[in-house]
Write a structure and sequence with these properties.
With 110 residues, the chain is mostly helical. It is 58% helix and 9% strand. 5% of the residues are buried. The structure holds zinc ion (ZN).
Amino acid sequence: MLTASHILLGFAVLAVWLLSLWVHPFGRCPRCRGRRMAVPFGRYLIWLAYRHLTGSTRAKPRPRPCRVCKAIGRRQRIGSRTLHRTVRRIRGELDGQRKARQAALEENTR
Ligand SMILES: [Zn+2]
Protein backbone atom coordinates (compact mmCIF):
# COMPACT_ATOMS: atom_id res chain seq x y z
CA MET A 1 0.00 0.00 0.00
CA LEU A 2 1.24 3.45 -0.88
CA THR A 3 1.15 5.80 2.05
CA ALA A 4 2.30 9.36 2.57
CA SER A 5 5.50 8.16 4.17
CA HIS A 6 6.27 6.11 1.08
CA ILE A 7 5.86 9.16 -1.12
CA LEU A 8 8.02 11.16 1.28
CA LEU A 9 10.66 8.45 1.16
CA GLY A 10 10.48 8.52 -2.63
CA PHE A 11 11.07 12.25 -2.63
CA ALA A 12 13.98 11.86 -0.23
CA VAL A 13 15.57 9.22 -2.45
CA LEU A 14 15.01 11.42 -5.49
CA ALA A 15 16.56 14.41 -3.71
CA VAL A 16 19.61 12.38 -2.71
CA TRP A 17 19.93 11.06 -6.25
CA LEU A 18 19.68 14.55 -7.74
CA LEU A 19 22.23 15.84 -5.23
CA SER A 20 24.64 13.06 -6.13
CA LEU A 21 24.07 13.87 -9.82
CA TRP A 22 24.83 17.51 -9.11
CA VAL A 23 27.99 16.77 -7.12
CA HIS A 24 29.21 13.96 -9.36
CA PRO A 25 27.93 14.57 -12.88
CA PHE A 26 30.47 12.09 -14.13
CA GLY A 27 30.39 8.58 -12.85
CA ARG A 28 32.82 5.78 -13.30
CA CYS A 29 32.39 3.97 -16.55
CA PRO A 30 30.18 0.94 -15.91
CA ARG A 31 32.08 -1.19 -18.42
CA CYS A 32 35.70 -0.72 -17.35
CA ARG A 33 35.00 0.63 -13.84
CA GLY A 34 37.32 3.55 -14.42
CA ARG A 35 40.26 1.42 -15.53
CA ARG A 36 39.94 2.69 -19.10
CA MET A 37 40.76 -0.77 -20.36
CA ALA A 38 38.17 -3.46 -20.73
CA VAL A 39 37.76 -6.77 -22.42
CA PRO A 40 35.24 -6.29 -25.21
CA PHE A 41 32.00 -7.91 -24.17
CA GLY A 42 31.81 -10.22 -27.19
CA ARG A 43 35.31 -11.50 -26.57
CA TYR A 44 34.55 -11.97 -22.92
CA LEU A 45 31.48 -14.04 -23.76
CA ILE A 46 33.46 -16.18 -26.20
CA TRP A 47 36.12 -16.68 -23.56
CA LEU A 48 33.49 -17.66 -20.98
CA ALA A 49 31.81 -20.09 -23.38
CA TYR A 50 35.17 -21.57 -24.41
CA ARG A 51 36.20 -22.05 -20.80
CA HIS A 52 32.83 -23.53 -19.90
CA LEU A 53 32.74 -25.95 -22.84
CA THR A 54 36.33 -27.11 -22.87
CA GLY A 55 37.16 -26.66 -19.21
CA SER A 56 40.36 -24.91 -20.19
CA THR A 57 42.06 -22.39 -17.99
CA ARG A 58 43.00 -20.12 -20.81
CA ALA A 59 43.85 -16.64 -19.61
CA LYS A 60 41.27 -13.94 -19.94
CA PRO A 61 41.44 -11.99 -23.20
CA ARG A 62 43.68 -8.96 -23.13
CA PRO A 63 41.85 -5.77 -22.23
CA ARG A 64 41.60 -3.08 -24.86
CA PRO A 65 40.84 0.60 -24.55
CA CYS A 66 37.27 0.79 -23.36
CA ARG A 67 34.83 1.66 -26.10
CA VAL A 68 31.98 2.66 -23.82
CA CYS A 69 33.79 5.66 -22.33
CA LYS A 70 36.33 5.97 -25.18
CA ALA A 71 39.11 5.13 -22.72
CA ILE A 72 38.35 8.09 -20.49
CA GLY A 73 37.24 5.98 -17.56
CA ARG A 74 34.35 8.29 -16.78
CA ARG A 75 30.93 8.63 -18.21
CA GLN A 76 28.44 11.43 -17.92
CA ARG A 77 25.57 10.15 -15.84
CA ILE A 78 22.10 10.06 -17.33
CA GLY A 79 20.13 13.12 -16.29
CA SER A 80 23.08 15.19 -15.11
CA ARG A 81 23.08 17.29 -18.26
CA THR A 82 19.35 17.91 -17.98
CA LEU A 83 19.72 18.76 -14.31
CA HIS A 84 22.51 21.25 -14.92
CA ARG A 85 20.60 22.85 -17.77
CA THR A 86 17.47 23.15 -15.63
CA VAL A 87 19.37 24.67 -12.71
CA ARG A 88 21.09 27.13 -15.02
CA ARG A 89 17.76 28.16 -16.54
CA ILE A 90 16.13 28.67 -13.14
CA ARG A 91 19.16 30.67 -11.99
CA GLY A 92 18.99 32.79 -15.11
CA GLU A 93 15.32 33.48 -14.51
CA LEU A 94 15.90 34.39 -10.88
CA ASP A 95 18.73 36.66 -11.92
CA GLY A 96 16.49 38.35 -14.47
CA GLN A 97 13.80 38.87 -11.85
CA ARG A 98 16.30 40.36 -9.41
CA LYS A 99 17.64 42.71 -12.04
CA ALA A 100 14.12 43.79 -12.95
CA ARG A 101 13.34 44.42 -9.28
CA GLN A 102 16.53 46.44 -8.83
CA ALA A 103 15.76 48.47 -11.93
CA ALA A 104 12.26 49.18 -10.58
CA LEU A 105 13.73 50.23 -7.21
CA GLU A 106 16.15 52.57 -8.89
CA GLU A 107 13.33 54.04 -10.89
CA ASN A 108 11.42 54.76 -7.67
CA THR A 109 14.34 56.35 -5.83
CA ARG A 110 15.23 58.57 -8.69
ZN1 LIG B 1 35.01 2.53 -19.89
